[in-house]
Each structure stands twice: as C-alpha cells, then as structure tokens.
Design a protein that fits this description.
Helices cover 47% and strands 13% of the residues. It is of the alpha/beta class. It has a 7-stranded mixed beta sheet, sandwiched between helices. The radius of gyration is 22 Å and the shape is globular. The two termini are 37 Å apart. The relative contact order is 0.17. The structure holds pyridoxal-5'-phosphate (PLP). The site of pyridoxal-5'-phosphate has 14 residues, from helix 5.
Length: 427
C-alpha cells in the first residue's frame, strides 16, 4: 500500500544528520530546532532549587530530603504532573487531573508508548495523514505496527476517506485503532485543521472507536489570527489523547513531554485509568521514569511562569514571525515569476512547504548541500506517495533572517540549474 518501506523511513534521520555533518557550512532549512538564543540558560540552572523548595513544602519535608528524593529513582508516571496539568489547562485548554498525565522522556516517548499500547494486536493499524511527522511513523515501524496514510488534502475529503479506509480495513480483518494528527501548524506542512473538521473527526472516531493522538508542539507559536480550540477541548467522547512537549516552547534538552489520557477513554469508565496504567507499566521497562532532575528543572521553570508559558514564548514568536516573513519575501523574489513554484504562508509554527517544478529526492539533497551550500528537506522523507516528491519542507525556526534570504538565493541557483537541465533535455 505504501510507496516507501519502513526500513527506508528508519534510515532517513541518520542520512539527514550525515549530510548536515558532511557540509557544516551549508545553510540548513532541514531541522525544526527551536532558536537557541531564547534558552534562558541561567534561569534553567536555578530552576531545580526552586522546584526543590516547592517539593519540600508540598511533601512537608526539609529541602535536603526533598533533594535526595528528586535524585532517586522516581514514580514512573511522573513527578511534576500537577504543574504540567496546570500549564496545559491554562495554555492549551487541556483541563485534566494530574493522574491523567503520564510524564515521558520527550513527546517522542509518549507517542511511541501510545501507538504500541493502542495498536497491540497484529491486525491493529495506525492512521496518519500523508505526509506526516516521521517520529510517529518511525515509532510505528519500530514496533511493527502497520501505518495506513490518508492522502486527502481537503478536509471534507479527509473525513470521507477516513470512513472509507476504516470500512476497507474492517473488510480485510484489520482494525484502525488510532489516528495520529498535528492539527495546529502541522509538521511537515504547516497546515491547520479547522474547528469544524476537528469536531467532525472526533465524531467519526467516536463512532468507529478510534483514539485520536493529538500532537501539539507548535500550537503556542501563532503569529496572527485566532487559535481554534484544541481537539482535546472539543472532545466529549473520550476520543482524544493529548501529546505535549516542552522541546519547542522551552528547550529540547530537557527531554520532557507527556501523554494526557481522557478519563472515559472511548466512553469506557475504566478505559482512561487502564491506559495510564498500561503506559506506565511499559514505560517502566523502557526508561523507568523521565529524568527527575530534568523534571525538577522544568518544574522550577513552570513555577516561575505562574502556570502559563505564553509570556515566556513571546520573544520567540516575534523572531519566528519575522523569519517566516523574510522567508516568504525571499521566495517571492526568487520564485515568484514561475507559476510552477508554489508555497504556503502558515500563520504560525516552524515550517512551510515549497513546490518545485521537478522531483526533489535524496541525490538532489546531496547536490544542493555540496554544490550550493543549502539543505532543504525533501517531502519524500515524510510521505507515502510519490505525488509529494516535488515538494520540500523549509524550516524557518533555526536560522537568522540573513541566513534565510541567502539560503533561498542558493536554492534558487540550484533550481535554475535543474530547470536549465530540463530545458536542455527537451531541446
Ligand atoms: C510533530 C512533532 N511531534 C513531536 C516532536 C518531538 O518532540 P520531543 O522533542 O518532545 O520528543 C517533534 C519534534 O520535532 C515534532 O515535530
């Protein structure tokens, strides 16, 4: 069914890292790293002590004892669940109790645990949009879970396709168990799902008993327009499991994320509690618990932020908005005259996509990096279909404006060369 096999997906990240290491001077649009000038390094080193004092107070013990407990092995489901629940409630409308939260080693672990727990039998299938984030499909590959892509770009078509795919799978003895989505500023496309579509998908998934994995690393980074409600907020059926991370809002090195499980999972009164127990059980054999020293760091930052990260991410949002604008202006200057080149203008997030007049594959990536000093991300790395081979993803989060415009100039020289080659072949 898929044009690309799991082994080729699993090799992608290594290959990309190798290219970046081989051409360190190349301007990279490939990585969705957050801009590191916004890491508040001094504050981070003070944060664990702040959390230690808080924890001592909370537990009714002295700070030395609290510090020792933090540095011990800890509770598998997490140490700072209350602070995380408060922040997610305030910032994302994810109202939940601390015991609905499983704190994980980054969102990646939450994603992997949920996919494995929900798709436990050989006939169980994970649904994703095509293209989608390779972290989710890669995790499914790791566990041998079959991934079925939904290729519709339009929202109405997407809902129809979901229904058709579920029926087709059932006719073949398979069961769609989970749907992985990034509804706000999707990676890799930058797309946003409308509220209407989110609600419709929840309804469809409730009817067909499919859990939605709502992954929301970029939702906080909106540059203009109004954010709609998260799917968690819209869900009254216990369909949505919310996946969160602090990698983009604060810093990736902290490696803390979480899964938030609805109380009545798919309408089952015990389902939520049981899934939390299953995730914790499995996690205990993977990472035992998410590093408590890192949780203490994050806890200290959350305490200092008054239960919301909105104000803290303000300067980063302004930087990313400017980068988005510089990238869009540069694309207009470089490619505006060619109607075969098209790009989207996302209202937030870290990425946009650029369609080129030719397929852009691995050998093009190497040519771009080695001869032109620029690294775009081929969409083929995220996609199941060759239909997306003409598209590249451009991340605008991790370069300064000058590098972005120079990077686009370099890409434009590569594109001009390829177009010339195409013209020569025709002549
Ligand atoms: C959509 C998406 N989900 C999850 C992650 C990974 O999050 P973490 O660093 O918390 O593992 C990323 C990172 O790029 C991402 O783009």
């Amino acid at each position: 069914m898929s044009a690309r096999s799991p082994p080729s997906r699993l090799k992608v990240m290594n290959f990309l890292n190798e290219v970046a290491a081989d051409y360190p001077k190349a301007i990279s649009f490939a990585s969705g790293r957050p801009a590191q000038q916004f890491f508040d390094v001094d504050d981070w080193w003070e944060a664990p002590a702040r959390f230690q004092r808080h924890y001592a107070e909370q537990m009714g013990i002295d700070t030395t004892q609290a510090g020792r407990l933090i540095m011990q092995y800890g509770r598998t489901a997490g140490l700072i669940n209350t602070l995380i629940a408060e922040q997610l409630g305030n910032d994302d409308g994810v109202r939940c109790q601390p015991d609905q939260v499983v704190v994980t080693t980054g969102c990646q672990e939450a994603m992997a645990l949920c996919i494995r727990a929900l798709c436990a039998s050989p006939e169980d299938v994970l649904l994703v949009r095509d293209p989608t984030y390779i972290g989710a499909t890669g995790a499914a590959d790791l566990f041998g879970v079959e991934v079925v892509p939904l290729s519709s770009a339009g929202e109405d078509d997407l809902c129809d396709e979901l229904r058709e795919v579920v029926t087709r799978l059932a006719a073949n003895g398979r069961r769609a168990r989970a749907l992985y989505l990034i509804p706000e500023f999707d990676n890799p496309t930058g797309r946003v799902l409308t509220t209407r579509c989110r609600a419709r998908l929840i309804e469809l998934c409730a009817q067909t008993r499919i859990a939605v994995l709502e992954d929301n690393p970029y939702g906080m980074f909106r540059f203009e327009g109004e954010s709609g409600p998260t799917m968690w907020t819209l869900d009254h059926e216990g369909v949505v499991i919310y996946l969160a991370t602090y990698s983009k809002t604060l810093c990736p090195a902290v490696r803390v994320g979480c899964a938030v499980v609805p109380e009545r999972l798919l309408g089952d009164g015990d389902g939520g509690r049981e899934l939390v127990a299953t995730l914790s059980e499995r996690k205990s054999f993977l990472t035992v618990n998410a590093s408590q020293t890192n949780q203490a760091m994050l806890g200290g930052v959350l305490l200092d932020s008054g239960g919301s990260l909105r104000r803290r991410v303000g300067p980063a949002i302004a930087f990313y908005r400017r980068n988005r604008d510089v990238l869009v202006d540069s694309l207009e200057r470089a490619f505006g005259a060619d109607p075969r080149c098209r790009w989207n203008v996302p209202e937030g997030g870290f990425f946009l996509t650029l369609q080129l007049p030719f397929r852009f594959l691995e050998e093009d990536l190497v040519a771009c990096a080695s001869r032109y000093g620029v690294i775009p991300m081929p969409m083929s790395y995220f996609s199941f279909s060759r239909a997306n081979d003409r598209i590249v993803r451009l991340a605008f989060s991790n370069n300064d404006p000058d590098a972005i415009s120079e990077g686009v100039n370099r890409l434009a020289r590569f594109v001009a060369e390829r177009k010339q080659e195409q013209a020569d072949e025709v002549a």
